[in-house]
Each structure stands twice: as C-alpha cells, then as structure tokens.
C-alpha cells in the first residue's frame, strides 16, 4: 500500500516526497518506499520537517550506522550530526562538486541534510546524477575508463591553511590524516544495489588516476569534473527552513553554492550513513 506521494522533478534526478514525518519512526512500508525512491531518483526532498539533531540522527539510523566526521564541528550533544554553519566554519571553498567522504575506504551510503537557517535568496544546492553522466559518455571512453582506479585524499578539501590554522585545529587536522590515509577507488563504480555503472571521481577528494601519467590523469579528471556538472544531469534546490534532502551518496555529486555573502547566516545539519567499499564489475 502506498503511503507516500513522490513527484519527480527532472528527467535524470530528484523528487519531492510528502507523507512522512521525520520526527517519528518509519513503518516498514514507508522505509521500503523511501529506499526504492532513493534508488530511482537519487535525491529526495521533504518540506516542513522541524526536527532536532537527535531526531535527525534517529531517523538516519533506520537506514544504517552513522559516520562521525573527523574535522567538521558537531551539533550540540549529537556527534553524528555535522554542523555546517558559515559563521563558525569557512565554507566558501567547499563550493565545488563532490561526493561526501570518498576519502574513506567505505564512503557513505547516503546523507540527510536538514536546513535550520537559510538565506531568503541564494544558498541553493545542486545534485548531479553520476548515472546520467556515465551513460552520456561515448562507448569508447567508457571502455577506456573501465577498470581504472583513482586516489582520494582528505587533504584535497581539508587543507591545513583552512582547518589546521590553530593549535587545536592543527592537532585535529593531523589526527584526521592519520585516521584517514589516501585510499583507492574505481573510477567507474558499480552500484551495489542497482548494479548500474556510474562515475566515481570528484573534485572534492580525487587527486589522481593511478594508471595514467600525471598529465594524462589531470586531463581526464578535468574532463570528468566538467562533464558531471552539465545542467542536464542536475537538479537545483532552493532551500526553505526545515527542508530536508536525502541523497544516495554512491550515485550523486553535489555543489553548495556560496552566493549569499559572509554576513548572511546559513546553518545546515547533516547525518551521514555509513556505506561499503566501492567495486567495479565489468558485467
């Protein structure tokens, strides 16, 4: 029995979902519908969800265990909730296309982002379908990328000059490097549930395609970074307070625009659901 209403936004990615309350546990039918909608639409949007950090963590935990970020600050008394507050953390340089936490051996399954305080205009977030980007490569280029691997490094998006510029911050930044050394993932990933293939390199954390020379790697990565940001692969969301976005981190990239200046206050809470080790299957 259908309990939710799901309205598709664009041909390739995005849907608005109504009929669920994030402050309450899901019934089995609702959880199944959300999981299936996430696989189909890759990012889901929910309006008017005024929840606490604990409620957000409890909701996210219904889909898996939660990641604790090694650098970003946390919401009060809720370490699983990342606090993205532009008055506490300089987020301007985070305005790049990225997939969350691919510096991990097991990047997240998904992320749930709650808008707590947003500008009246500006501050939109865009998501891109890594499926659509892959499908729109030529067969010859898909064959070239098949089986290649790439290195992902936490320092790419968390450099010392931004996150290690105080004694306390430097110690945390150093420990984050120790706990998260560079990792290798396939350039083309097979989704563990849908079986579809998708591009799995991102500007936020990918530093090199390992089987290519430095110049070749740079050229290919730059092409893929530009390719995945094509408007026809994307959806753009204008936030309202208490909106929630839930995305499949395995199959998307996203970009948080920073066009609202430093005086405007923007606060978001993110729960990140642990995933598994990426793989590539040729079949």
Automatic annotation (TrEMBL):
Looking at the record's lineage, which domain of life comes first? Bacteria
Gene Ontology annotations of biological process type: sulfur compound metabolic process
An example Gene Ontology molecular-function term: metal ion binding
What cellular component GO annotations does this protein have?
Answer: cytoplasm
Q: List each copy of the TauD/TfdA-like domain by range.
A: 6-272
Q: Which Pfam families match?
A: TauD (PF02668)
Cofactor names from the entry are:
Fe(2+)
The protein's UniProt keywords, in alphabetical order, are: Dioxygenase, Iron, Metal-binding, Oxidoreductase
InterPro entries of this UniProt entry? AtsK-like (IPR051323), TauD-like_sf (IPR042098), TauD/TfdA-like (IPR003819)
| Record flagged with keyword Iron | yes
Give its E.C. classification number. 1.14.11.17
Q: Which family, according to UniProt?
A: Belongs to the TfdA dioxygenase family.
NCBIfam families tied to this protein: PRK09553.1
Its name, as the record gives it, is: Alpha-ketoglutarate-dependent taurine dioxygenase
Question: To which species is this protein native?
Answer: Faucicola osloensis
